[in-house]
Amino acid sequence: MLELKAGPRTLRRTLDDFDDRPYERFDVQPLSPTIGAAVRGVDLGSVDDEVLAELRRARLEWKVLFFRDQAIDAADHRAFASRWGELEVHPFLPSADAPDVIRFAKDEKIGGYENVWHSDVTWRQVPSMGSILRAVTVPRLGGDTLWCDMGAAYDGLDDETKDRIDGLTAVHDFVHTFGRLLSDEEKARKREEFPPAEHPIVRVIPETGRKVLYVNRPFTSHISGMQPEESSTLLELLVRQADVPEYQCRFHWEPGSVAFWDNRTTQHYAVSDYHPQVRVMERVTIIGDRPVGPAAASATALAGV
Question: Can you tell me the mean pLDDT for 85-97?
Answer without folding.
Answer: 86
